[in-house]
Amino acid sequence: MLRSCLAFLIASVAVLPAVTALADDPQIARGKYLVTISGCNDCHTPGYFFGRPDMSRFLGGSDVGFEIPGQGVFVGPNITPDKETGIGSWTREQIVTAIQGGKRPDGRMLAPIMPWHAFAQLTADDAMAIVAFLQSSAPVHNQVPGPFKPGESVSTFMFRIMPPGETAADAAK
């Protein structure tokens, strides 16, 4: 028992400087602040829309989509540095382009629900701080469903956005 406790303490001390360095990095701290006040957690963390955000999968992609009439259903993607299901293979410049220009590395435009028009007003330093924070966060392996084209079967909960004057009863089923 004592041997395993000592091994744990030695391993913890070896990792501590790296964790402290991240916490002490002013650019990462600024990025965390900006991500927090911008509400990125809202659309990119599972459970948020059910009132129980799963912080063990922070920014790992939503479990709720938004239906936009005529465009389809869009689920907030995984924006952690996971290379398979997140943005881990994106460059800093590609992340900034997505945040501020609404364009993914593959050329596809982000869903209109993403407020990139507002984020286009970020300073270059603030945009890079957000990137630094996202790249320093824990990778979460979580592939979100979609996007779904109009008329496709949806495999997740969704919010429906309807034009003024329509009622839920009139909305397409």
Features:
173 residues; mainly alpha; three-stranded mixed β-sheet; 3 strands; 39% helix
Question: Would you write up a description of this structure?
Answer:
By secondary structure, this protein is mainly α. It has six helices and three strands. The chain has a three-stranded mixed beta sheet, with no helix packed on it. Strand 1 and strand 2 form a beta hairpin. Helix 2 crosses helix 6 and helix 4 crosses helix 6. It is globular. The chain starts with a helix and ends in a 13-residue tail after the last strand.
What's the quick description here?
With about 170 residues, this protein is mainly alpha-helical. It has helices at about 1-25, 25-40, 40-45, 90-100, 115-120, 125-135, and strands at about 65-70, 70-75, 155-160.
Low-confidence runs: 1-21
**Average of per-residue pLDDT values:** 87
Relative helix content: 25-40%
| Gross morphology | globular
Structural class category: mainly alpha
Number of strand elements: 3
Largest sheet composition = 3 strands, mixed
Physical arrangement of strands within the biggest beta sheet: 2-1-3
Question: Order of helices and strands, N to C?
Answer: HHHEEHHHE
Rounded to the nearest angstrom, the distance between the terminal CA atoms is 60 Å
- Estimate what percentage of residues fall within beta strands: 5-15%
What is the CA-atom radius of gyration, in angstroms?
Answer: 19 Å
Q: Number of helical runs?
A: 6
